[in-house]
Amino acid sequence: MANQVVLLVLGFVLTTVVGGVLGYYFQRRTWDANRRESERSAAAKVFDDISRVMDERLYRMRLLYWGLRSGDTNRIAAAMAEYRATLVKWNDNLNRNLALAQRYFGDEVWTYLSGVLYEEFAIIGRHLEDWFHRREDRERGSAEEARLFLSGRRLQALGNDIFELNRFMIAMIQRGEVGLYFKARKDEGGRPWRTALSVGSKSTQVADWQRKLIRIGCGPLDVDGWFGQATRAATAAFQDASGLEPDGRVGELTRSTMEAALAAAAGVASSSHAAERPAHDSM
Fold first, then answer.
1. Which end of the chain, N or C, is more open, meaning fewer C-beta atoms within 10 Å of its C-beta?
2. What is the count of structural domains for the chain?
3. Residues 62 and 174 in one domain
4. Looking at the DSSP assignment, which residues form a beta bridge with residue 197?
């Protein structure tokens, strides 16, 4: 009789404990699944807001560009009015969107947005606004006309980069690696800011690379975001001077070599400025 009582008590305890553990485990899994889905939904909303404002501004800039190319006064005025209205909405949500991008998609996406894409928006926007204000002073076929044409090429390159970033962010949402479940991936695959560059590439990364080639003394080049034969030749010249295979393509090794060369050049410039300063302040 005593043994039966012990067995009953033991069974009750085991059932209670195991049942409690299993119940807690499945409840935690349910909570985690609900929270993950909540983070995914919030990230999708953030993506939609950021993608929408970029597409809207890009489209209005293209309308303004084609208006300026046409020379039609009414068309230009209407395009500028729409562009300025879009800028108001852009600036109203600028810091909010950047903060949410960092919260849900991580530092790399935030850096690419704020330091590359948004900066390119600003540069092209300044070019278009400058042309708009001085358009009556310009003569068709002049160097300024060519500069406007370069802005159009950079708009196309910017559009390509926005598309690639959209794909990357959507993939993060689909994997559920956003917000509290964000994971910094070690592989570089799929990152639009780390793609190899070669003839035919059109992106803000090409424009940035062209600026670096000019800074290092491998110019002159048009900074248009299009990787053509002139950019390939300048890249090959830099690679040859740096002891790399001069294939004219920009991969990780060429990128890192360029960063080291620019850092060294900046260090030399800083040292020369320091040497020129007097040891003591003059009285």
1. C
2. 2
3. yes
4. 250
The domain in which residue 154 lies consists of 38-183
At 149 the pLDDT is 80
Can you give the pLDDT at residue 265?
82
Quick check: pTM over 0.70?
yes
pLDDT at 3 (0 to 100): 62
Looking at the structure, tell me whether residues 45 and 177 fall in a common domain.
yes
* 275: its two tokens: 């040497």
Are 132 and 241 within one domain? no
Interatomic CA distance for residues 212 and 227, integer angstroms:
13
Q: What secondary structure letter does DSSP report for 190?
A: T
Residues 129, 256: one domain?
no
Question: Using an 8 Å Cβ cutoff, are 150 and 68 in contact?
Answer: no
For residue 139, give the CATH number of its domain: 1.20.120
Task: Calculate the dihedral angle through the C-alpha atoms of 43, 46, 50, 56, rounding to the nearest 10 degrees.
Answer: 120
- And the tokens for 256? 């890192």
Go through 66-83 and write b for each residue having 16 or more CB atoms within 10 A of its CB, e for each that does not. ebbbeeeeebbeebbebb
Asked whether residue 51 falls in the same domain as residue 99, the answer is: yes
pLDDT tens digits, one per residue of 194-251: 889 999 999 888 988 999 999 999 878 888 889 999 999 999 999 999 999 999 999 9
